[in-house]
Amino acid sequence: MIAKRIIPCLDVRDGRTVKGVHFVGLRDIGDAVELGSRYAEEGADELVYLDISATYEGRHTFTQLVERIASHINIPFTVGGGISNADDAERLLAAGADKISINSAAIRNPSFIDELANKYGSQFVVVAIDAKTINGKWMCTTHGGRQLTERELMSWAYEAQERGAGEILFTSMDHDGTRVGYPCDTYAELSSMLSIPVIASGGAGTSEHIAEVLTRGKADAALVAGILHDGVTTIPEIKDFLHKQGIPVRLT
Predict the structure, then answer these.
(1) Where do the domains of the chain lie, and which CATH numbers do they carry?
(2) Catalytic residue list contains 240
(3) Taking the alpha carbons of 64, 67, 68, 73 in that order, is the dihedral positive or negative?
(4) Nearest-angstrom CA–CA distance, 156 and 136
(5) Is 19 in a helix, a strand, or coil?
(6) Which of 106, 112, 135, 240 is most open to solvent, judged by the fewest CB atoms within 10 Å of its CB?
(7) CA 166, 187, 116 angle in degrees (round to 5)?
């Protein structure tokens, strides 16, 4: 049985890790490389770094940060935020990233997924979907959750898969930073529909929440941020709990 993955997420602004609720109210957590190194040593399976200040100047600053990450961390890591063309992806790959995550640019130009998958392989391409419930439907957003689109979660995720995405990273905007648990029924529907891995993001408050989304929610991996950053729990504690629940995880 394939091990479930625990993936710390580090939102980065100007080289520092930050965290908010519903993508706003950001507070400083610490140095992005030092924090990532610590999580890697504690047993993280992968890391995700998201550049949330991806202006043109920020993109080049972030590329330098990715080079630092690659030189200090020995587990796979994904980078995203403001990636709008193949040159951006090429620069981050050359800097040492293992995968790139795209969201707004993919919705704006869906063929961008095909382009990246054809050039680098599907395993390099993670399509991130930030969605919220509107009148009972999960609708996709862009620009860090600030702009609502006409794309619906399930149909867009399926299209992204068919265009060559290797993974779907679905963040529930309704649950982000709330620590009330993941929308497991939605993850179960999404995971059952797709043939590629689904990463769950938004709502982790306890190890029980993570166990639930990996079992009832059928997710392949759980993205975790605030409860790690604030010391509520640790990666070893999460994995020990999952292991005792019979959920396959990689133990160090």
Answers:
(1) 5-244 (3.20.20.70)
(2) no
(3) positive
(4) 17
(5) strand
(6) 135
(7) 20
Angle between helices 56-72 and 86-95 (to 10 degrees): 30
Question: Which stretches does DSSP call E strand in 67-218?
Answer: 77-80, 99-102, 125-134, 137-142, 147-152, 167-172, 198-201
Asked if 47 and 40 touch (Cβ cutoff 8 Å), the reply is yes
**Residue 109 has which token pair?**
């130009």
pLDDT band for position 178 (cuts 50, 70, 90):
confident
Q: How far is CA 84 from the centre of its chain?
A: 17
User: What type of residue is 11?
Assistant: D
Residues 97-147: tens digit of each pLDDT:
999 999 999 999 999 999 999 999 999 999 999 999 999 999 999 877 788
Q: Identify residue 245 by its one-letter amino acid code.
A: Q
How far apart CA 199 and CA 214 sit, in angstroms, is 9
What phi and psi values does residue 195 have, to the nearest 5 degrees? -105, 0
The secondary structure of residue 177, as a DSSP letter, is T
pTM of the model: 0.93
**Residue of 11, 45, 51, 88 marked active site:** 11
Is 11 one of the catalytic residues?
yes
Q: Which of 45, 88, 130, 220 is catalytic?
A: 130
